[in-house]
Amino acid sequence: MNDRWLILGGLGLFLLLVTWPLWQGLAAGTTSAGPQLPKAKAGTVCVAPVDWMRSSHMELLMAWRDGKVRRQERTYLGSNGTSYAVSLSATCLNQCHGGDQEKFCSRCHAYAGVPAPDCWRCHVAPVRTAALAAGGAQ
Amino acid sequence: MLDKALVGNRSYWGWLLCLLVLIAVGGLCYLRQLQEGLGITGLSRDVSWGLYIGQFTFFVGVAASAVMVVLPYYLHDVKAFGKITLLGEFLAVAAVVMCMLFILVDMGQPSRVLNVLLHPTPHSLMFWDMLSLSGYLLINLVAGWVMLQTEATGLPAPGWIKPLVLLSIPWAISIHTVTAFLYSGLAGRSLWFTAVLAPRFLASAFASGPALLILLCLLLRRCTSFDAGREAIGKLATIVTYALAANLFLLGVELFTAFYSGMPEHLESFTLLFSGGGLAPLMWLALAAALAAFAILLVPRWRGNEKLLATAAIMIFGSLWAEKGIGLIVGGFDPSPLGRVSAYTPTFPEVAIVAAIWATGALLVTLCYKILVAVRAAD
Amino acid sequence: MKLTRKNFLRLAVGGAIAACSGALTRTVRGQGLVGTQPQTDDGVRFGMVIDLQKCRREAGCSLCRQACHQAHNVPEIPDPQHAVKWIWNEPAAKVFPAAGESFSARTLPEQLPILCNHCQHPACVRVCPTQATWKRGDGVVMMDYHRCIGCRYCMAACPYGSRSFNFEDPRPYLLKPNPDFPTRTIGVVEKCNFCEERLAAGKGPACAAACPQGALVFGDLSDSASAPRQLLEGRFAIQRRPELGCGPSIFYLV
Q1: Which residue of C has its CA nearest to A99?
Q2: Residue B356 and which of A61, A67, A99, B293 are 20 to 30 A apart at CA?
Q3: What percent of chain B has pLDDT over 70?
Q4: Could you tell me what percent of chain C has a pLDDT over 90?
């Protein structure tokens, strides 16, 4: 039983590593309250029911992306009968969701711990165009 | 069986440590490349493929050359190769893994590599290259491992193993043919646009691979209890001689067509390769080494001398590495479609990444051969 | 058959192979081996005629390039080896090397604009392993930056040097970003898109619109009444390296 302390020490280290995110969260004072997203602009209606968008917006975005780039589908008929121009920055972001992906997309993705897809490495939110010119990427 | 790789003397562990250090350094450089893009390499708008794709091309040849021990043993009953077929198969496994890594590090968006499978495109040769390379890896891995197991346990080999090994023979030819087609199907690149490219690839593969195998056999005899036997090494040397002759012949055929016809495009790339461009000294050195090695191999008495044979094998491996792994790929981009000649100089991170992939290949070969030697020693 | 571990593995491997080969045969059947034909042919072939007598009347003019690069967020990268170009000027002797030694070489201006040829049988489309570049029914050779894996096979295949790779992040090199068009990211290949975003809005390419001489004439080459066809009727025109069989849709009027 000479190895007892080695084993116990190893177990302790393992527990510490496994629970590390918990301690980190406690130390940083993280709460479970979600971020307050900017309200959609008055008078705008989302292309699909809100619940479906919450769970599956990436599916819609991918369908839009492939449709527009590869099949020239430039307008989308929403579930409410309105037709929308297929555009990530002009329609989704600028027309409805406050014009800034940092405030709308990134915060929620960070909160949910879902790595944000790299849309914004190419697409430009109009409010961020000025920053690009100054040489500051993102 | 894997546990046999975990027992070794100090020099074994020291060697593994060296390889791991190289892999770590290259890995760090690769992280930087992921972050900053391929701009940290010497690649450019005009020379858009370089060391990575050159090494890929060369090692497809090394992988394909396993067929040069498998074919004589299984089709012509050359008993001397019985002890080294497994060496050939494991070398092929390591070489194919290296090829895949070279492709991966060359990609601008490696995270999207699965797009090749998600959107399969039969009119792209790269699609077929991927299929043939992964199939070849699987065949050699399964065949090598099962044969090793039968040696360890002393049980007869399962019935399906022989058809699998036989399948590996045409498959080996196909991997290098498809790799040559990657280049020879491009009408705009005159250095590659030649029907003789695939045969030339095969000839240089069957010279460089067995040359490496000779060196590995000699090394194994020095460092371990494993002896491939004089006969096997002698037969390998004969194979190398024929393949090298074929390769030199095909190179001569290419040069004749280019220089006698005098067609500017064909002439230009060869002239740049051998006199104008920055690669010229390397190309002449490679040619001289190949000719000198060929002279050694032609004389049976010299070929039988193991010191001379080892020298010739090193020269051949190095010469074909320079010819195919650098000259052919980089040279194919000079001059550019707009007539520019650009110098390509690999950068430190690029070389470190290549060294890391070489080290990965060496690591795989070491581990496989270690297990093999241990299994044979236990008999 | 008893489901031992060995049998299970056999079944799994067999199933995987069957599934893969099924998918493979399906795609092979659907594609054909030399896939440069568009899946649907609209009966339209967009092309451009560049009138060299009008072009470059003013030495050093690069208005077409400026308009294009501004509209499409093409970065101005100082390192020529990392440069990204959609339309730009090159010495005529390099663009038409066969005409370089002829005694009538002076019929060509010293510099002339080149861009993607939007070929009928594009080599880049043939080699792309992911269909990230493909030919549309109207002849426009497109790029899907979402799908490109950055293997640069298309750059090796294109005999015209029309393709650029993003060796570095292009964003710091944008002088005046256009919010209506995306930028690109490191590791993808890009090229002229024949202003497909303007075509969709019923406008012609930005380069043609920017030329004060009207030297760049865009239109449907399969329509004998179109402006480019009318021009080609009456004058001698050359294409870049037509002998390679790519079928460039850019014509240069001598």
Answers
A1: C179
A2: B293
A3: 100
A4: 66
Q: Pick from A69, A124, A135: which is nearest to C144 by CB?
A: A69
Residue C218 backbone dihedrals phi, psi, to 5 degrees = -105, 145
Pairwise CB contact (< 8 Å): A123 & C182: yes
Q: Which two tokens stand for residue B105?
A: 């590090």
Give the closest of B112, B123, B332 to C149, CB-based: B112
Residue A99: what residue type?
A: G
Question: Hey, are the CB atoms on C187 and B122 less than 8 Å from each other?
Answer: no
Integer angstrom CA distances of residue C196 from A66, A74, A90, B177, C138 = 15, 12, 18, 39, 10
When CB atoms are compared, the residue of B45, B103, B120 closest to C82 is: B45
Least confident of B147-161, C91-105, C216-230, C239-253: C91-105
- Interchain pair C144, A137: CB under 8 A: no
CB neighbour list of residue A131: distance below 8 Å, 6 or more residues apart: A138
Contact A126/C at CB under 8 A: yes
Whole-angstrom distance, CA of residue B254 vs CA of residue C12: 48
pLDDT beyond 80 at B126: yes
Q: What is the pTM of this model?
A: 0.90
pLDDT of B177 above 90: yes
Angstrom distance (rounded) from CA C35 to CA C43: 18
Interchain proximity C142–A90, CB inside 8 Å = no
Widest distance between CA atoms in chain A? 75
Task: Evaluate if residue C26 carries a pLDDT over 70.
Answer: no
Q: Are B331 and B46 in contact (CB under 8 A)?
A: no
Please indicate whether, in this complex, the C-beta atoms of C27 and B338 are within 8 angstroms of each other.
no
Contacts of C168 in chain B (CB under 8 A): 36-37, 39
Task: Kindly state the tokens that stand for C139.
Answer: 């002849």
